[in-house]
Amino acid sequence: MVNEILDPPAERDLPPAVARKMRAQLLRSAGRRAARRPRLRLAVIASMLLVVMSGVTAMVWDAPDGRDVQVLAMGPGELSPTLRDAAEQCLRWHAGEEKRHAAEGKPAVSLSLADLSVAMERGDHALVLFMNDVGYATCDLRSAGRNREVSGGIFADPWPHGEWLPGPVQRLLLTSTEHDGGDVSVSGRVSERVQRLVLDHGDGHTTTARLSGGAFGLMTADARLKADDDPQLVSYDKRGVEIDRRPLFQAEDQLDHCYTTPSGKLIYGKPSGSCRQAEAWKR
Q: Are residues 77 and 101 in the same domain?
């Protein structure tokens, strides 16, 4: 005789008491198995939601060659394991520099992981920007590999004009895979007026930056930027109106305009008769 999986076995050869006990045990077991199924489904759904939410908070791309991965994290809560290792290594380097500056009587910027504003990873290369009310630090790191130790360095400096920006945008960190071109990784500060920031490649393509807490970060993927195309950072206000446009590869000491505080004090650029007003920065 063949039974359904939840049916008790044939009972004609069993004593009545044993048959009743076996039936009760089988039904209890079946009941427990059935009750677990909804929980398993909920666990799967929760995992799917976690993946979806992770996709919202951190941008991750596979590079065109399929070998490297690009990660852009805005804040310590979005760090990948390798980026967290890189950030912690940057802080160890900085701690050594901070002690040396203190011994020499130079101003130092104290940093912690909570000050991490932007972190970018492209293959084995990581870039980290730390910012707080005292100053900022940029770190460039290449992770350890086969027959290769971790290498890189960190530069920290107190803000010369921490609460003010040269207009809506201030670029603090820029690297490119080629001289003034190729793919770029860019980060810096923005004022509250900036609600959208875009890199115009100059060839009909664009890359949108991520904004968070007064910071911005962007990474291009297979962009092939060229300095001759004059790529520019373009910022927009909440109405979508363009409020600023500046060359990506232009150094701060080559700004097209000078900038002053509301009181008229010159803080950025060379003096001229038509300075613009610096914009406040808030984290």
A: yes
Instruction: Say which residues have a Cβ less than 8 Å from residue 70's Cβ, sequence separation at least 6.
Output: 59, 60, 61, 62, 63, 120, 121, 122, 219, 221
**CA-CA distance, 125 to 100, in Å (whole number)?**
26
182: domain range? Answer: 165-251
Residues making up the chain, counted from first to last: 283
For residue 55, pLDDT over 70 is answered with no
pLDDT value at position 5? 37
Contact indicator for 277, 264 with CB cutoff of 8 Å: no
3-state secondary structure of 160: coil
pLDDT digits (tens, 9 = 90+) for 33-42: 433 333 322 2
| Total structural domains within the chain | 2
Q: Is there a domain that residue 195 lies in?
A: yes
Determine the average pLDDT of the residues in 262-277.
90
Give the whole-angstrom CA distance, residue 49 versus residue 8: 40
What is the Rg, in whole angstroms, of the alpha carbon atoms belonging to the chain?
Answer: 29
The sheet carrying 266-268 orders its strands as: 266-268, 259-260, 276-277
User: Kind of pairing, strands 259-260 and 276-277?
Assistant: parallel
In a domain, 13, yes or no: no
Residue 52 has pLDDT above 90, yes or no: no
Q: Are residues 169 and 213 in the same domain?
A: yes
- In eight-state DSSP terms, residue 148 is B
